[in-house]
Structure formats: C-alpha cells, structure tokens
Here is the input.
Amino acid sequence: MAERERRGTPPFGGVFVARSEVMSADEMQRALWRMAHEIVERNHGTAEVVLIGLQTGGVPIAARLADALEKIESVRPHAGSLDVAFHRDDIGLRPVLPEEPTDIRSDLTGKTVVLVDDVLFTGRTVRAALDALQDFGRPRAVQLAVIVDRGHRELPIRADFVGKNLPTRRDEAVNVTENGVELGEVTK
Amino acid sequence: MSIPEASIARADRHLLQIEDLGRDGIEEVLRTATSFHEVNQRAIPKVPALRGKTVAMLFYENSTRTRVSFETAAKRLSADTMSIAVSASSVAKGESLRDTAQTIEAMGIDAVVVRHSSAGAPHLISKWLDASVINAGDGRHAHPTQALLDCFTVQQRLGPLDGKRIAIVGDIKHSRVARSNVAAFTALGAEVTLVAPRTLMPVAAHSWNAEVSHDIDAVLPKMDVVYLLRIQQERMSEALLPSLREYTLMFGLTTERLAKMADHTLVMHPGPMNRGVEIAGHIPELDRSVMVQQVQNGVSVRMAVLYLLLGSGVDLGAGSVPASTAPDENATAEVAP
Amino acid sequence: MTLLLRGGTVPGDTVFEGAAFERTVTGTTETQLADVLVGDDGLIAEIGPDLSAPAGTLELDASGATVAPGLVDLQANLCQPGFEEGETIETGSRAAVLGGYTAVVVMPNTNPAVDSAGVVREVRAYAEKALCHIEVAGAITVGRAGEQLAPIGEMASLGVRIFTDADTGVTNDRLMRRAMEYAAGMDVTLALHADVESLSADGHMNEGEWSSRLGIPGIPAEAEELMVMRDIALCRLTGARVHFQHLSTAASIAMVVAARDQGLPVTFDVTPANFTLTDGACASFDAQFKVSPPLRATVDRDAVRAALHAGSVDAIATNHAPQPAHLKDHPFDLAPAGALGLQTALALVTTQLELDMAQTIELMSTGPARVAGLHDSHGGPLAAGRPANLMVFDPDVAWTVNGAQSASLSRNTPYEGMQLRGQVRHTIVNGRAVVRDAEIQGAVQ
Here is the structure.
C-alpha cells in the first residue's frame, strides 16, 4: 500500500470536505506579502534569515515567501525543508512516515531560522521541528510563520508571523492550498 | 522466485525474509531509508524516534560488520541496544533457542536481531516472542537487510531497478545473500542472471526467477550491475572446486574482464572480499565499485527497518492495512487527502 | 467373557458361520450387516445377522460402523529401552489401539539395539504391559552399525520374523549380500530402509525446488533409489525375502513393482506422510515436517497415491517416531526427524484417499499381517475360529488432530490442527475390548 494512501485511509486520514472559504487566493497572496514585509522589518533585512518549510504543507508556503522576499530585497533568502517525522511525539500511536528527506544545506548556527507551516494548531509539529533543528547548529533565533493560526494550542508555542487568525472547533479541519484556505471537516 | 505451492508466513512484526515484503514493502523501506540517509549526513546523525525501545543482538554466528551496523542504526534512532552473549557452541542441542527466547521475553526487549547458522532459526524464535524479530542471516536461507541495502545502493547510483540487468556471480548454492537478492531485485523489476560453475549453482536453479549461465564472459558486457559473492576456502575441501586459482581464471572479475564491461556498470560485493580471488585487488577502489556505499547504506536501511517495525505503526506485510489505534487527540498537521 | 459386536458392517470376504446357519463365504466385495460374537477363548465364535448371545455377554454397539480385522503396523519406533522420554512400549500401544491397531512391529533402534537374544527377551518383557500384540523385530547388524552380522539365527529361533537396521541402510554392499544369503535360508524377512548415506549425509529435507530456495541442504531421491536398485539386485542374487520400508519416490516404487512382477520375493510399504504431504510444507521451517524419509516433491506424493489406488502397494506402515518436544523445538537442521503416526493413519486414509473398505483392509491389516508373518492371528478375512483381533471404525466421525491429547508421550505431529474424518470406536485384542467408545479400557492379560 503506498504510504500516502496508508496515511489517507481511515481511521487516521479521510477525505476533506470543504464547508466555507476562509481566504481566497488573492487574500492569501496579500497576506503572504504582508508577512514577507514583517519578516524583513523584524529582522532588519534578510541577510541572516533562513526559511525552512515544514513537510509537507509548509514547503510551498516557504517557496512563496522566498519569492516575495526576493522581490522585496532583490536577494533570495536561503531556504530548505524539514521533515519532522522522526521527532514527533506520537510515533507508535499512529502510522508516522517521513514524506521527503530533510533538505537543509547550510549550518544554521548564528542564523535566524523562520519555520514556515501552513496551519498552526496544537503546536506539536513545531515542537518536533525545534527538536530537529538542534541537529543543524545553534540558530541565533527561531521564528514561526504560518498562514492560519486556528487556536487549540497544547504547548506554549506562538507564531511570529500570521496570515490569518481563525477560531475553529476541534472537530473542524482547515485546508490550505494554492487556491486559498477552506474550512471544513474530514469524513471517514 | 516463483512459488511452487503454498504460501510463506507474511511479515507482520518481523522481517524474516524478503519474500514477505512484496514490492510495496521493499519500496516502503527504500523510501524511508532515503530520509535516514539524510539524517546520517548531519553533523549529529541522531533522531529520537525509537527512544525508550530496546534492540537486542542475538548473534550465534560471528559478524562484527553486520552487528555494528545494526547497533549503529539502533543507536541513531535513540534506542538502547544490548548484545546477548551466545557462543557458536551453544548452537549444539542442550541450550535451546527457546530458553534464550524466554529470557529475552522476560527482559521486555522490543526487537531482536538474529543471526544463526541454521535456516529458519529466526522464524522459530519469532513464534516464542512478542518482540519483533529481524533476520540478520540464517544459514543459507536469507539475509533480507543485505538485499535491501543492495537495492538502495543500485537505486542511488542507477535509478529505479525496473529493467536493470544484474549478474550475481559466485557461490550461489551456499549464499543467503544470493537468495535474498534474487527475490528483492526481481520484485523491483530487475532481470537477474546467476553465474557460477555448475557445482556452485543451486539445485533446481531453473526454478529460480533468474537466468542461469556458466559463462561469465558472455554475460558481463550486457550487465548494469555485477554482484560478486565471496568464494570460501571450505568449498575446496568439499570437492566443489579444484582450486581458487581455477575459479579466478574462469569466473573471477579480473582486469581483463573489467574492460569488457560497460562504463556505467557497477561492481558490488557484500563483503568481506577475497582480493585476488573473485575480484582483482585494485577494482574495489574504482569509482564504479560501490562497496563502501553499500556499508554506509546499510546503516540507513537498517534504521528504516527498525523504525518501520518498531516505531512507525505501519505494517510492512505486502498488501496489508495499517495497525489501527484509537483516534489520537494529539493530531497536529491537518490531514491532506 | 464373551463379547458381541452388534449391528456393524463387515467386509465382503467375511465368512458367515454360526449356530443358526452353515459356513458360507459371501464371496462378494460388497459389505453387509452382521454381528460378530467372540468367545471367552479369545476366538471369533460366530458371524452372522441377528446373533443371540449367552448371558453375561458384553455387547458393544457397532451400528453405523465398520467391523474389520484389526490393523497391523509394520514399523513403529517405540523407544524402549533407552529413549523412554519419547515413548514406551506401553504408551505406544495405547496410541496404537486408539488408532485401530491390534499388532505393531517395533523397530530395533533402541538403546541397546535389539541385536541379541537377550534384548529380544527384554523387549518382550516390556511388551507384556502392552494393550496390543507387539512383534519384536531384530537388527540385521550388531548395534545397527552396519559392520557385522547380528545373530539372526538365534533371534529367529526365538520367533523373530523381521530383521531391519531401522532408520539406516546397510551401507556395505558385501555385508548386505551376506545378510541376505544368510537370511534366505530361514523363514524371515529383511525389512530395509533404503538410504545411501554418502548422498544424503548433509541433507535435512528433499532435494528439489523447495530445498533450493529455502537454503536447506537436500536429500536427493537418488539416495533412496540407488539403494533400492542395489537391494533388488542382491535379492535377485540371493533369493532372500525383502520388504522395502517407506518408499517415497516414484522411481523407487516403479522399480520394486517391476521386480515383484518378475517374481522376486519383494514387498514394500508407504507411510501416510508420503501420500499426504510434500516438501513445500517445510517452508515454514517447522521441524514437525522433518521426517525420514523426507517429504518429497508433489510428483512423488502423487505417484504414491496413484500406486495406492492402483492396488500395487503391499502395505501402509506408520513409521510412528515420537520425539520429545524439547528436541523438536530446534531449527530445522538441528531437530531430529520423526512424526507420530499410529493415531492418525487410518483417518488420513479415509479422509485423503478414495479407497473402499476392502482395499483399506488389505493395505492396513491383511497385507502387513502377511509381511509380518502374523496372518494366522491378524488380518482378514473375518471367520469363526480365528483369533478376535478386530477394530470397529466410524468412517464419518470428524475430529481435529491435537498433539497435546495424543496417547503417546510425545506430541510431534505434522497434522496439528487438521480436520480428519474417521475414528476408531472399539478395538478388540485377542477377544478383549481394549478400546470402547474411543477410550482405553485397560491392559490385556
């Protein structure tokens, strides 16, 4: 069974059914622009900034942020991707499989790492990412950029750059694609 | 290899033989190994994935190389390791495998890596243990992690194995590596040719899923991979070969034979090598020889196997569904369909 | 005490005789209903429909069941003396009578081997506790070592009729010739295990496609066939009476059948393992499937079945070989060979073969009784005046093989968990009901 199919089948995965649109494609693009400006402002430029997208949802977002930052600063920031599977705290409780190998090419010591993900929910993915980052050096600072912060944090984690704050119920689901953000639910 | 009748036990918590994995299972391992390969490039090649788990080494046959590879793999997953001391002489009746298995069970070990000179010993142990059993070589029967790391290495250098032509040369009759490799390579779509003198070709080789040849010079130019097996001194005393020199003359990978191979053809060997016998002394240092990569990849592949059996919650058996647990409220990332 | 088996079906060659009617042989292969009355002298007194019995007769219900001559096993390893952990003659006899056997030929592969008059007497003493007749076989060579002839003459004078080195062949050609020449003059049978050790030495299962892919060293069919060939030639040379034990390959069977057709005094038996299982079963690496001779390829298994159905086989023997559990719990190449057989043989025949009652009786009772020289007291046909060695058999009762419940001291069966059809209801040994309603009753005096 392909790993993707395996994760997609009940009782863990399922099919996302959209109920409403939260952000259109244009709204998302504007939010990305604003976040990119905020990153530049907060870090006084992007010279020491490294964007790291979290597999899988954060990777395309990181790419778009890198595009935006390149237009603003005329220099493309370093970027990479991080698969946190092996650092998750629910290994053994559900099928946890890596998506793609981590791709971080430079030593992160002294850099400002901006972790990028599509949705911030319980905070456990980010915790795993912080854990994983330790193997790549000692960053000067780690910041977090997400398109949607949907609440329900289970750990003391907060985002530095947020596209949209979206109050949700626990049983709802948020889906971020290149066409925008939808709110709905996952049916088994 | 084609299965004449009946089925062999399927993988659930164990890795006993390649045949239990099927193509899907093998690809799962290779995919996961790619991620561990990256982990192994890091300055700190360690992840906490199997923290709290214990992996025991039960090696009835000496093997520093394989044992260290498994221990390294376990440690890089943050598992604890232990080595259960058994001497080769305890293979004799009197100290039964069952007693050792019960000791292991009592200690709450999560996985046992077993190497034994008897075919089927890991299968026997798996009947008595809740722990996962990983076969690190049983008699002449199987060496599944070797086959997996060999597939990974070929794929790394030449891409997918579909349609690739692989020759396995040497003492195939007595080789567990050959048996597992034929199963793994063919499962991934490669075409395998067995090359050996008639006395070292297995009985009923025609029933294996491979071509059979006794003429290495005819086979070499067409191959993408040449996989050499070690020729052991014991074979002389069993009247299977007149001399090592004769073997080298007729089947050894000499400099002359090297020249007839295509430029891209890889040379592989499970080690340890008998330089000057099955392989000319200088060949292992050439760029096309990937023995060092095989050893390196061994750690990544064994990490993948340990992780998939112990941590991932995924069932490696071919065509099976994942082990189910209660829905987890700690779900983080949204699930994309 | 007199005993009456009421309402059973008897074989077609049964001789009807009784107070109410004259002796008639039915002469048909069809079966029919009849009662069997056994006298307190241990002999069959009357056979016929609706018999009346004297007061005090023990009446056993045989309705719906077959009443047949008790089975005779030509080869059972009962481990005593020397290996009593696996089995004793008494416990083996319990398994035997539950399986419908009234006579068992025990192998001399004990410790000490049965290679002298003294050990023959010792084993016969143990046999007094047995529930069925125990026929002691003697060894051909001293210690079964294949070097020196055992005192066959002296053992024969004690009444030993079968000589075998049990699970080893006689390797030395000259010695085998001498043994046959010596034995040819006596009224004895040499029962031979055909195995050329130099070909089979390292092997643990049949050599073929399965051993090749499992990486287990194999025993080629030729290891059996070569010795069969030799022993047929020596039989032709010497005129000795030879019985080939547990033939397992198509070629072996063909050779012996051809020799027998040419008039040579040769017979052979096959074991249930070789007509029910094949070498593919070893793929589980479970040593329960390690037997000697090994489970062979499908084509050989099919040849054995074909020979059975064609009527060319002289007997089915169990080669019952108990092994203590802790010995079988070893990797395949380290475990000893052997499987239990006495309690499952008849049911395997009923479940897996298409034989009628007459054929089954010939293969499992009359045929082996003849080979063992026991046909005066065992085997068919049923007739008044013959010793009452009988078994009553329910051909349709289903049961599941459970090693833990076997009457044997050991548990090693390759049929664990298998559903079989056919169960022994009663077993009568020398007129005494030792098994009633599928349960052991007690020792024979």
Notes: The mean pLDDT of chain B is 87. The CA atoms of residues 80 and 217 of chain B lie 48 Å apart. The first strand of chain B starts at residue 54 and ends at 59. Chain B touches chain A through 42 residues (CB under 8 Å).
